[in-house]
Amino acid sequence: MSTAFDLLYSETEEELRSAVRALLADRCAPAAVLARAETGRPHDPELWHTLAAEIGTAGLLVPEKLGGQGAGHREAAVVLEELGRAVAPVPYLTSAVLATEILLGCDTVTAEVSGLLRELAAGRQVCAPALPLTQAPGVPLPTAVRDTGGGILTGTVTSVADAVAADVLLVLADTGLYAVPAAEVSLTARVPLDLTRPLATVTLEGAAGTLLADPATARAAVAGALLSGAGLLASEQLGLAEWCLTETVRHVRGRHQFNRPVGSFQALKHRLAQLWLDVASARAAARAAADALATGAPDAPLTVAVAQAYCSGVAVRAAEECVQLHGGIGMTWEHPAHLYLKRAKADALTLGTPGHHHALVADFAELPSP
Questions:
Q1: Sign of CA dihedral 225, 229, 231, 235
Q2: CA gap 118, 134 in Å, rounded
Q3: Which of 132, 318, 307, 121 is closest to 227 using CA atoms?
Q4: Are 126 and 162 in contact (CB under 8 A)?
Q5: For residues 97 and 247, what is the distance between their CA atoms, to the nearest angstrom?
Q6: Quick one: pLDDT at residue 68?
Q7: Shortest CA distance to 166 belongs to which of 151, 181, 177?
Q8: pLDDT tops 50 at residue 29
């Protein structure tokens, strides 16, 4: 039986959007994002504190009894839409979504898990899963880290997103899931395509970790978090595509050639009309994924795979059109279009490529794989 999805935004969700958008408009203008990216340290701790703690977005997925807002995936999706619209350099996807979902998949009665969840929900700490950013749902989890005895961990994990901003890392080892203070690991920064989401290689050489879950529970929790992360990433891609479409339409309306607005030429009208249709369809796919995760729909894995398979391509196309239709200015470092193109390209690899999700759709629907 197919699931009936609620694709509309509630009044509460729109109020949350307004609060987040106002904050980002004031504190996360494209020029400011670019300036921070050029320093090699893109994260803005003050912006994160306001977003996570004062507005309370870090605890949207956390139940009230554990110090969170007791909201859900639909609200988190709205936040990610706005963060994607601003290419905001904050560790929301990694800490407030992936790490939080992993912890919620563990035994939240234990003091270690509940205590860390409370810290994350309050915005007092940032937590990053020590997993490759490209780790996809439905793929065997890595076994690069080993417990040499007593929770002393050794191993190397590559392409870990936002590790440089984390206070705690969640490390999946052969004996379970461990919380490891960032001070216990060695980080080697990598040059990412997306300058707003830094990557690092995490090396553990006798790092002491606190056991949070046994191997079976840990792997189930990580698998569930990857599914949720992939579904909510579609909302980030949606926000990114909407900004690109809006800015491109604004530019071609004001840019004149042959004494006419560039946007009045029929060929460009057709391209932008098609892009509008693509973005509208992406909105439906992203909202369906968020609603399926929020309601625990049985076909949530299929809905998430559809959203990722579609929204990744739309975000990339929207960013490419933005760069091209801005003409010469769109190719410059000073214009923010390249930030959106790089985020779109990087997101297309994050938590599984479009090809991987196409294959999942075929598998779930019992169709021949593409």
A1: positive
A2: 28
A3: 307
A4: yes
A5: 28
A6: 95
A7: 181
A8: yes
